[in-house]
């Protein structure tokens, strides 16, 4: 296992490209994808990790953010032991670029803290400050994948409402379906989000994904203007049910598996989604949406 070092952050962060030497398409906005779910236990984090490695396999620079700020576990699932995390950024002990660690499959991870109650009680200003800090990673990031917490806390809502795309992970479980509907209703009613991309996970039969989509489609008829789009079906694989590193990096370890094929196809499909059209360069647009909620200068929060 690899450990990051606070004295040698360069070991954890890819080399930056000087602005004048960056390729012509480097000024395009970063694609930001929030991976969320109504309830826990549906494989959301496993989806976020394997989607990240699948996108990275296409030659994209991918940064995965563990946004379960007080209950972090992405580093554990990746078999990493980072020395620094987002709590150190909030405490002013380091910059965001110092906490980034290189993960398997060519992805970069921004680890959160686990077991720190304060991290679950951040203000809107502190959320915005963290988001602003991500502009410093724009040189090495084409796609930012955010693994949100579960449920619909202020923290989850903040990251979902600021991301360009929301992937909602659902399983063939009545509680998962009901909570997924509640998540869409809150994000639509309170934050104006109208498009949700539905990913059916742990499906034992090919038809399961279509059935889940149909059920949620019927439920969302009650939500005016909401659009849900099925984006894929991830088949069941027993190796993904264990909270070990193998589950986290399944696509990297088992590239010929049906699960890896499904994530690879999803990554290719994401490449064909409309390109981001927000402010070019960095993640300014990401901050902008949060600043509108009352934060004057997010930089003052770091």
How would you describe this structure to a colleague?
This protein is of the alpha/beta class. Helix 1 (44-56) packs across helix 11. The chain has one domain (35-301): 3-Layer(aba) Sandwich (Rossmann fold). It is globular, with a radius of gyration of 18 Å. Strand 7 (195-203), helix 8 (207-220) and strand 8 (227-235) form a beta-alpha-beta unit. The chain contains 12 helices and 8 strands.
What's the CATH superfamily, by name? P-loop containing nucleotide triphosphate hydrolases
Q: State the CATH class.
A: Alpha Beta
CATH topology: Rossmann fold
The main pleated sheet reads as: 8 strands, mixed
Instruction: Round the Cα radius of gyration to an integer and report it.
Output: 18 Å
Strand content: 15-25%
Question: SSE order, as H and E?
Answer: EHEHHHEEHEHEHEHEHHHH
Whole-number count of domains: 1
Strand order of the largest sheet: 3-4-2-5-1-6-7-8
pLDDT below 50 for ≥5 consecutive residues: which ranges? Answer: 1-27, 279-302
Mean pLDDT: 77
Cα(first) to Cα(last) distance is 30 Å
């Amino acid at each position: 296992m690899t450990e990051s070092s606070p004295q040698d952050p360069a070991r954890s962060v890819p080399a930056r490209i000087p602005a004048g030497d960056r390729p012509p398409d480097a000024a395009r906005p970063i694609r930001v994808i929030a991976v969320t779910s109504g309830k826990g236990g549906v494989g959301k984090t496993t989806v976020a990790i394997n989607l990240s490695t699948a996108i990275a396999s296409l030659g994209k620079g991918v940064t995965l953010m563990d946004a379960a700020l007080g209950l972090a576990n992405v580093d554990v699932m990746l078999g990493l032991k980072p020395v620094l995390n987002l709590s150190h950024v909030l405490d002013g002990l380091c910059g965001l670029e110092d906490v980034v660690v290189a993960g398997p499959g060519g992805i970069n991870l921004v680890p959160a803290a686990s077991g720190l109650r304060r991290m679950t009680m951040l203000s809107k200003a502190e959320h915005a400050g963290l988001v602003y800090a991500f502009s410093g990673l724009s040189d090495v990031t084409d796609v930012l994948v955010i693994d949100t917490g579960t449920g619909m806390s202020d923290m989850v809502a903040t990251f979902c409402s600021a991301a360009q795309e929301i992937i909602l992970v659902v399983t063939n479980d009545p509680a998962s379906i009901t909570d997924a509907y509640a998540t869409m209703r809150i994000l639509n009613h309170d934050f104006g989000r109208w498009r949700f991309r539905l990913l059916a996970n742990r499906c034992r039969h090919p038809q399961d994904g279509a059935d889940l989509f149909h059920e949620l489609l019927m439920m969302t008829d009650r939500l005016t203007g909401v659009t849900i789009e099925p984006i894929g079906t991830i088949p069941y694989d027993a190796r993904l049910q264990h909270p070990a590193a193998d589950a986290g990096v399944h696509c990297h370890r088992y590239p010929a598996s049906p699960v890896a094929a499904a994530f690879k196809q999803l990554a290719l499909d994401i490449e064909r989604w409309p390109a981001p059209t927000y402010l070019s360069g960095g993640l300014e647009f990401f901050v902008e949406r949060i600043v509108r909620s009352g934060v004057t200068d997010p930089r003052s929060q770091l």
